[in-house]
Amino acid sequence: MKNILFLGDSLTAGYGLPAAQAYPSLIQSKLSEEGYTRYKVLNAGLSGDTSSGGLYRVDRWLSQPIDIFVLALGANDGLRGIPTRETSQNLQQIIDKVKLHHPEAKIILSGMEIPDIVPGRYAAEFRKLFRELALKNNIAFIPFLLEGVVGMRHLNLPDGVHPNAEGHKLLAKHTWDVLKEMLEI
Question: Which Pfam families does the record match to this protein (predicted)?
């Protein structure tokens, strides 16, 4: 069995939905449909988590085999206005820990964005930090996990922030488009 670990926040946890509708569960279903039966998805999503919370939590997951690691943190950092340098350092330390414990693991970084309505340069710097980390570490990259979902009322829960079941299908598609290149039958 090969493990795919998703470390993320409420988006990964599937906030407001049954676990089976969260995008990591949809990835597990897609793996089965496509004949990748040796893969098991582990969902380490925690609502409200930040990059620093993920850095604190990642150790407890590293004791088990990890073949593919999907890092999907940062949205809450952006919402809270945490300095981009701090977010970047936390995400880098998570990547470093995964590489140290599982040097053969393939890593995917899920990019996040915040609306450009945020004053100053923060939104641009925030968007850029994910791309820079992916390039620096030579890891696979999903440019924007919420592409096509943000601001679409019909794809989000009434809070307008968290994707509904239909929205999670798009998150799964964006992830699958990158993940499928790493799979072995």
Answer: Lipase_GDSL_2
Domain that holds residue 39: 2-182
Q: Which of 51, 88, 162, 168 is catalytic?
A: 162
Query: Is 162 tagged catalytic?
Result: yes
Is the CB of residue 99 less than 8 Å from the CB of residue 105? yes
Average pLDDT, the chain: 96
**Residue 37 and residue 44 in contact, taking contact as beta carbons nearer than 8 Å:** no
If one counts the domains in the chain, the total is 1
First to last CA, the chain: 11
With 90 as the cut, is the pLDDT of residue 116 above it? Answer: no
Query: What DSSP element (H or E) covers 2?
Result: strand 2-8
Secondary structure (3-state) at 4: strand
Q: Which of 10, 51, 52, 88 is catalytic?
A: 10
> What CATH number did the domain enclosing 97 receive?
3.40.50.1110
pLDDT band at residue 115, thresholds of 50, 70 and 90? confident
10 among known catalytic residues = yes
Residue bearing tokens 């997951």: 61
Q: Rounded to whole angstroms, how far apart are CA atoms 143 and 161?
A: 19
Distance CA 111, CA 118 (A): 18
